[in-house]
UniProtKB/TrEMBL annotation:
Keyword Magnesium: no
Gene3D superfamilies the UniProt entry points to: Glutaredoxin, Tetratricopeptide repeat domain
Organism from which the protein derives: Thioalkalivibrio nitratireducens (strain DSM 14787 / UNIQEM 213 / ALEN2)
PROSITE patterns according to UniProt: THIOREDOXIN_2
Protein known as: Thioredoxin
UniProt record, GO biological process: response to stress
Gene: ybbN [H]
PANTHER family in alphabetical order: GEO12009P1
Keywords noted in UniProt: Disulfide bond, Electron transport, Redox-active center, Transport
Domain Thioredoxin: 1-114
Family: Belongs to the thioredoxin family.
Record's keyword annotation contains Transferase: no
Taxonomic placement: Bacteria, Pseudomonadati, Pseudomonadota, Gammaproteobacteria, Chromatiales
Amino acid sequence: MVEATNDLVEVTAGDFEAAVIEESFRRPVLVDFWADWCSPCQMLMPVLAKLVDEYAGKFRLAKVNSDEQQGLASQFGVRSLPTVMCFRNGKPVDQFMGVQPESAIRAIIDKYLERPSDRIREQALARLEAGDVAGAVENLRAAVATDPEHHDLKIDLARALVQAGDAQGAEQQLNLLPMDVHEQDAVKQLRARLVFAKNANGTDLATLEQAVRDHADDPEALERLAAAYMVAGRSQEAMDLYLKLMQRHRSYNDNAGQKGLLAAFEVLGPRHELVGQYRRRMVSLLY
């Protein structure tokens, strides 16, 4: 057994909260679920111990004897040994099972290490939350310039640019991402938001609402207002307008009403309370 240090600790149910959950707010914590009888566990341990020494405090390795701590193993759904979970900011964010190459383990650790640009990102997201969109964009551009391989920064910048009304700039940022990152839900949702931002074309809500009042059955006015509502976060009002487009102008702009609803579902996500309701209403209009 490798000697325990502050960076390599034996963990039980009694100290898991402090040793893993609380510590994961400061640095990544790898939790190694193992057992004495498990040969692959014994093979993996020297690799993990080597990385602990090499990273010199940048992450913690917490070892859980699954035979002695069956409650913990059950709580985290451990079905085979070894199972190694990475905890960050209070929750499991990654895992692997079995013996893995050192390079693969290193990639997981590196993914969750704090980077200098993370502090700038935190400031930017705080400004975005406070409504200072221009300030957030400025911070995120600076962060991307200092850490161009940090792909989450580009996603955050694209999201801020959408809020700032710069759909073209947002699309440029998303186009810089590697192909595998394009499959992430956050990127798919942003792509869908860009459809709305382009349709709204930067026109303010009051102008678009007046256009619909003046021309209540104009499909272009309905589509642009629905898009603007989605950009503004007024999703239910937007989907009501897209349903109206489907009912009255099915052929307009290659069935823009249905396409708008599908994009809205993508933005909101499948678990949103409105998605099931409006999906059923959309289907009832189709058949």
